[in-house]
Specification:
Helix content: 40-55%
Keywords: DNA-binding, Phosphoprotein, Transcription, Transcription regulation
Shape: globular
Distance between the termini: 38 Å
Number of helices: 10
Oligomer: single chain
Radius of gyration: 17 Å
Strand content: 5-15%
Structural class: alpha/beta
InterPro entries: CheY-like_superfamily (IPR011006), NreC/VraR/RcsB-like_REC (IPR058245), Sig_transdc_resp-reg_receiver (IPR001789), Tscrpt_reg_LuxR_C (IPR000792), WalR-like (IPR039420)
Pfam families: GerE, Response_reg
Protein name: Response regulator transcription factor
Number of strands: 6
């Protein structure tokens, strides 16, 4: 994987696009394209094949949610052959689009008041196949959508997980990083990464965000747990 991280920024406000480009550029991340609406974002991403697309939700012509659905459904890959990732950026900390965007395969959801360091960190995580949610979004997402009161063993392949993989999934859903998982389970970090990869493969999930959603929807983890 190349060290040069390539990003497309999609937002209907030129000042927002230039601001993000400046922040990312200062961190050595190349903004290869910009788009003022979802339709242009989709065309630009297909043409340039970036590592990450920063996608605003509320844009003209085509909104960011539809653009995200189409981009990820197409299986777009980067010039290095890796999956292109989408991070949703918005001024709204939770609306009807958040859950749909994550279910569509977005690798994160951040507010536009995110700090520069946090934005750069999120983009790098997404490129590496990880994901990041704003803490307030994680809490409210869980409270709003996680309602199962018992574990649904027949839910989406949950029964295919080993006992250790279920344990890893529970801790992952509670927000632990790979390093924290390794410390909690007394495992090497490489072993933890292998467990996470197997969980995603068995459950046919794109990344950790979808794994968190899966854990709550299946009842494996509950908001009160």
């Amino acid at each position: 994987m190349t060290d040069t991280l390539r990003v497309v920024v999609a937002d209907d406000q030129a000042l927002v696009r230039s601001g993000f480009a400046m922040i990312l550029g200062a961190a050595g991340i190349e903004v290869v394209g910009e788009a003022p609406d979802g339709e242009t974002a989709l065309a630009t991403a297909r043409r340039l094949r970036p590592d990450v697309v920063l996608m605003d939700i509320r844009m003209p012509v085509m909104d960011g949610l539809e653009a995200t659905r189409r981009l990820l459904a197409s299986g777009l890959t980067t010039t290095a052959g890796e999956a292109t990732r989408v991070i949703i950026l918005t001024t709204f900390d939770l609306d009807e689009y958040v859950y749909a965007a994550l279910r569509a395969g977005a690798s994160g959801f951040l507010l536009k008041d995110v700090t520069p360091d946090h934005l750069v960190h999120a983009v790098r995580l997404a490129r590496d196949g990880d994901a990041l949610l704003a803490p307030t979004i994680t809490r409210r997402l869980i409270d709003r959508f996680a309602t199962p009161t018992r574990v649904r063993e027949d839910f989406g392949g949950l029964s295919a997980l080993t006992a250790r993989e279920r344990e890893v999934l529970v801790l992952l859903a509670r927000g632990l990083s790979n390093a924290e998982l390794a410390a909690e389970l007394h495992l090497g970090e490489a072993t933890v990464k292998t467990h996470v990869a197997r969980i995603l493969a068995k459950l046919e999930l794109r990344d950790r965000v979808q794994a968190v959603i899966f854990a709550y929807e299946s009842g494996l983890v509950t908001p009160a747990a």
